[in-house]
Design goal:
The protein has helices at about 75-85, 170-180, 200-215, 220-230, 240-250, and strands at about 30, 35, 65-70, 90-95, 100, 100-105, 115-120, 120-130, 135-145, 150-155, 190. The chain has about 260 residues and is of the alpha/beta class. The longest helix has 19 residues, at about 200-215. It is elongated and about 65 Å long. Pfam families: Y_phosphatase.
């Protein structure tokens, strides 16, 4: 039985016995048959032919944090490649793996004491601490090619459902734990929920305004939300998220001299 060569084959030529592309894959394809498309999150159109890892790295945020969707099967390699490329020492996870019986995010880390490979990167969980409303995991990320290892701290908030509102005090304590944790890496933290907009946007806003207010003594909640939404629609997705966010900023800003919140 004869089959047509994949449209991803360079020059449209492939072997008759197995369909493998003779001259390799076109820029936007990968796989032995060049029948898989590179992720839309690749910084360039080129990805590794075998693994699909973006050659030029992944797209990331315009803010001081790297925001993204919760990793799924087809983006796990891209996710860890981004963490490595950006030299991120912290990952903030704001979703559960399953919510309302629907999968929201793949588990992109192994169990404690285990290791898992993602292309040329290996992830090992060295330690896991469970608190009332979040987990703190210590991960080791190893580049198998260069043998370089890095320590990554993952903070996993478990009490914030999709489109819902967290307890402001719990969120405040969680945020302080993230901020107080020390890392030797200089890159921005990676922040994600499921879709990468509502919960992610809320956390990025409170983190950024907290830092800005600490430096300048004043903040404008409403103006910053508008700025975020110019970069990506629906950041801070619902009214209750916005109200919760304002509550947090006000109650955690005793040291700020001036507080501007437009209504």
């Amino acid at each position: 039985m004869c089959t047509q060569c994949s449209v991803g084959c360079v020059n449209g030529t492939c072997r008759k016995d197995n369909g493998h592309c003779i001259d390799g894959c076109k820029a936007t394809f990968f796989g032995k048959l060049c029948d898989k498309s590179c992720s839309a999150n690749c910084q360039t159109d080129i990805c590794d032919r075998d693994t699909g890892i973006c050659e030029g790295g992944c797209m990331n945020a315009n803010f001081h944090d790297s925001k993204c969707k919760g990793p799924k099967t087809n983006t796990l390699f891209d996710f860890w490649r981004m963490v490595w490329q950006e030299k991120s020492g912290k990952i903030v996870m704001l979703t559960n793996l399953i919510e309302n019986e629907k999968p929201k995010c793949d588990q992109y880390w192994p169990d404690v004491g285990q290791e898992k490979d993602f292309g040329s990167l290996r992830v090992t969980v060295e330690n896991e601490k469970e608190y009332a409303f979040f987990f703190e995991r210590t991960l080791q990320l190893t580049n198998k090619k260069t043998k370089e290892t890095r320590k990554i701290l993952q903070f996993h908030f478990t009490m914030w459902t999709d489109h819902g509102t967290p307890d402001p005090v719990q969120l405040m304590l969680f945020h302080r734990n993230v901020k107080d944790a020390k890392t030797d890496l200089t890159g921005p933290p990676v922040i994600h929920c499921a879709a990468g907009i509502g919960r992610t946007g809320t956390f990025i806003a409170l983190d950024t305004l907290h830092e800005y207010g600490d430096k300048t003594g004043k903040i404008d909640v409403f103006e910053y939300v508008i700025k975020m939404r110019k970069d990506r629609m629906n950041m801070i997705q619902t009214l209750v998220m916005y109200v919760c966010f304002r509550y947090y900023v006000i109650n955690d800003s005793i040291y700020i001299d001036e507080l501007y919140t437009a209504s």
